[in-house]
Amino acid sequence: MKARIREVEQRDNAAVEAIIRYCLKEYSGDHEGTAWCDPDLGRFSEIYGTPQMRYWVAEDETGTIVGGAGYGPLPGRPGVCELQKMYTLPAARGTGVAHALVEKVLEEAGRHYDLCYLETFGNMKRAQRFYEKHGFVRSDAPMGSTGHIACDVFFAKPLKEETA
What we know:
By secondary structure, the protein is an alpha+beta fold. It has one domain (about 5-160): Gcn5-related N-acetyltransferase (GNAT) (Aminopeptidase), CATH 3.40.630.30. It contains 4 helices and 7 strands. The protein is globular, with a radius of gyration of 15 Å.
């Protein structure tokens, strides 16, 4: 699948929310303690759009939104951002769409943050392998205060090269 990655626009809000809700149901994450109950879900174009918080969508050849991903500051952790709301529809998985999204997020986040953190569910094994493939390392405990208390797997990735 060929997809175009672009910044989220107001016209994308409902489609991105629908993708996230679909994926959360798919992995039994449609409950309190997950993005399911995020009061800003569906307000992507209003929330994201500053250097510290950005969100991109993947649009297929027909103009249909098939995924999205973004980043924002991790509360209580200066210099650390969180990979936020990275989801793709099943038809887009394994096509390179998620790779293009995460690469865009990491490239842009690296201009403003030193570390990227993410949380996911233990039953999302394919996602965990994807994150590991992209240089994320599993952590034993959560960082910051995301409000997603149902997430039980944590990863982090340095965004800056260490200099000796």
